[in-house]
Amino acid sequence: MSAQENPPAFPMGNPEQGGYDGMTLRDWFAGQWVAGCLASGAVFEGPDGVAEEAYGIADAMLAARKDQPHD
Question: How far apart (Å, rounded) are the C-alpha atoms in residues 21 and 27?
């Protein structure tokens, strides 16, 4: 996955001087999905399944984002 497909969620720094710091948009999407599930009272059997599902959702969101106009 390229940096363009998975940009920083909260960009900091100057890309011409060594890039960005911080979490990626993929990480942020995955974390938001987990937080929403937990807030809704969802119960999970284990962390591995949660992580796999969360990043699957995040990957789908990034794929859908490629087809949408954005800055």
Answer: 13
